[in-house]
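Justification of computing resources. Each target in the renewal requires a structure prediction run like the one illustrated here; the chain below, 253 residues long, is used simply to show the kind of job we budget for.
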Amino acid sequence: MGQAAQVVKWAALAALALLGLPAPASAAPRLVIWAWERPEDLRFAPPQVEVAAQTGFVVLTGEGVFVRRRRFPLRTMRPPSTALVHVQIDHHRRLAWTPTQRAQAAAAVLQLAQAAGVRRVQVDFEVRQSERRVLLDLLADVRRGLPSGVGLSMTALASWCETEAWLNRAPVDEIVPMLFRMGPGGDALKVRLETGGDFAEPRCRTALAISTDAPLRRAPAGRRVYLFNPRSWTAADFEAARRRVETWSSGGG
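Resulting structure tokens:
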């Protein structure tokens, strides 16, 4: 897609949002396949299914910023709609979080996320309690650097959506609670979701993420669902995950 056409598309989506009108169905498909950093061939994905491609890593270490792009091939029939950037802190070195390091980190995320046609940038950044300010700073800086009409998403530990009021300050369009590899309290949360309950934090009620090896019997319908696979995707793995999600809308178990 050319730059001019891309700008027109972003502007059209932004106008729909301002008018309170729904975006076209193709702008927010229900399922999103996560393509993490490993060889992936997703040409089996139906046209209505999005792909969120991990485009690189950013490591905050001491006073520096280490950046690495995706190393493994990704094959799709259509360009990914979401650029996913993983960020982490090197806990072997005391983080300085200087203004220079902060600016470099945001610039790195934006550079890794650059891709023609993406509608969304997603930041995957798990932080400790003492590091929440770092996450919020980074999100704010990335938000300011995004073109108009490009959304900002963040992943979140499911427990954050139960206890963390600071999520209200996250300058994002979407929070994606990950319902797998959960710690204490995870089983109780899964039971609540499977029996008609929802997350305590309202901002966590527009999307969620599930894993092929930790399926849910039921979860709230009507939200974007990110699909994680601990191994490279196959068409069979995707179909099994898709059928499971469809049961949430049909009321099946």
